[in-house]
Amino acid sequence: MNVPEAPPRPPAVILAGGRSSRMGRPKVGLVLDGRTLLDRIVERLAPQADVIALNLNAAPGIDLPPGLAVVADTVPGYFGPLAGILTAMRHAAQAAPHAAHVLTVPADTPFFPDDLVARLSAAPDLEGRIAVACSDGEMHPLFALWPIAIADDLEAWIRTDTKLRARAFIARHPSSTVDFPMIDTKAGPLDPFFNINTPDELREAEAWLQCLKDRKQ
Ligand SMILES: Nc1nc2c(ncn2[C@@H]2O[C@H](COP(=O)(O)OP(=O)(O)OP(=O)(O)O)[C@@H](O)[C@H]2O)c(=O)[nH]1
Ligand SMILES: [Mg+2]
């Protein structure tokens, strides 16, 4: 019997290298219903990814799980999320030398889909292509599979471009967008890529989490 082969799980890097200035403290350590965001992200990522690393440029303010590699930006200076993506590519080239793509997910988005990798990696003609998530008509450039081979181009872009928009970088390369559905809850549709940037959004996330729990009962 031919059992279809599962696609290889990519190396993954959790992006948490920003300043968290709107929140006022590192977002990885925020507690949502008794568990840190980092815990929640790692739990959701673990079945989908091969090796997992955490991109950080400052102390996280919490104890990190043992075995989680921590990588600071390879081009220091807070050049934005693209610097974290470059760091992810450089790290993956070392930590998973046979991988063609690296997955990135930001640390502040606790409800991201548990079939993120399955669906991104099913994008047609993936070789050499960026596969990026999208919901409700909006692209989420930090949820993507990135060809590791474009690291040098990204580094040159970071060193020369002034705006450093992830969408503009994606437009330089072949890419596919993969659409993810909203999650139905009794309070209305929840975007699985809802992200937490402010204390108000942390409270909102608590409310959404309750809706998700009610949904399971
Ligand atoms: N490596 C790296 N990641 C960054 C940088 N700036 C933002 N990010 C990451 O990009 C993602 C989206 O950024 P934001 O949601 O704005 O997070 P932030 O920059 O920490 O928060 P603010 O300072 O409030 O804007 C988060 O996962 C950040 O950690 C950076 O300079 N370097
Ligand atoms: Mg954010």
Automatic annotation (TrEMBL):
Domain of life: Bacteria
Cofactor: Mg(2+)
Record-linked CDD domains: MobA
Catalytic reaction(s) noted: Mo-molybdopterin + GTP + H(+) = Mo-molybdopterin guanine dinucleotide + diphosphate
Residues that bind GTP: 15-17, 27, 55, 73, 108
Residues of the MobA-like NTP transferase domain: 12-173
Annotated Pfam families: NTP_transf_3
Record's subcellular location: Cytoplasm
Enzyme nomenclature, EC number: 2.7.7.77
Keyword vocabulary terms for this entry: Cytoplasm, GTP-binding, Magnesium, Metal-binding, Molybdenum cofactor biosynthesis, Nucleotide-binding, Nucleotidyltransferase, Transferase
InterPro entries attached to this UniProt entry: MobA-like_NTP_Trfase, Molybde_CF_guanTrfase, Nucleotide-diphossugar_trans
UniProt feature coiled coil, ranges: none
Main subcellular location: cytoplasm
GO MF annotation terms: molybdenum cofactor guanylyltransferase activity
Residue positions binding Mg(2+): 108
HAMAP family per the UniProt record, alphabetical: MobA
Function noted in UniProt: Transfers a GMP moiety from GTP to Mo-molybdopterin (Mo-MPT) cofactor (Moco or molybdenum cofactor) to form Mo-molybdopterin guanine dinucleotide (Mo-MGD) cofactor.
Domain comment quoted from the record: The N-terminal domain determines nucleotide recognition and specific binding, while the C-terminal domain determines the specific binding to the target protein.
Family from the record: Belongs to the MobA family.
PANTHER family for the chain: MOLYBDENUM COFACTOR GUANYLYLTRANSFERASE
Subunit structure as annotated in this protein's UniProt entry: Monomer.
Listed name of the protein: Molybdenum cofactor guanylyltransferase
Origin species: Sinorhizobium psoraleae
Name of the gene: mobA
